[in-house]
Write a structure and sequence with these properties.
This is DUF2486 family protein. It comes from Pseudoduganella namucuonensis. With 120 residues, this protein is mainly alpha-helical. The protein has a domain of 82 residues. 77% of the residues lie in helices and 0% in strands. The longest helix is centred in the last third of the chain and has 77 residues.
């Protein structure tokens, strides 16, 4: 089964890009039909149209690319920081466990020494 909307709605289609071109360029935006003479676009006009379309598409896609990159960087940072935090937490827990074991051992040793001293 194919999805109902197989295309990303945030990516413009060519007709949207052409529709959004500035009104000062009607001949280039709509092709020969706008000129009414039926002639094809000249080489210079075609290059200008291609350049404008490329620039327009790149501008529209740049925001999307920036967003995706920011999300991936954010996700990567969260993963790295989470891993580091888990490592530090484990080290602190291990250190506290060792310290408490030493304190309890020392306290028991001192108490036993004190009790043996009282028996003598």
């Amino acid at each position: 089964m194919s999805p109902a909307h197989p295309f990303d709605a945030s990516i413009p289609v060519l007709t949207e890009v052409l529709h959004d071109l500035p009104a000062t360029q009607p001949a280039l935006a709509t092709g020969a039909a706008a000129r009414g003479d039926g002639d094809e676009l000249s080489g210079g006009d075609m290059e200008a149209l291609e350049r404008r379309l490329s620039e327009r598409i790149l501008q529209q896609l740049q925001a999307r690319v920036d967003f995706v990159l920011e999300q991936r960087i954010k996700d990567s940072m969260e993963e790295v920081l989470g891993h580091a935090l888990r490592g530090l937490t484990a080290e602190i827990r291990h250190g506290l466990h060792d310290t408490l074991a030493q304190i309890v051992s020392r306290a028991v040793t001192q108490e036993l020494t004190h009790l043996h001293a009282q028996k003598k």
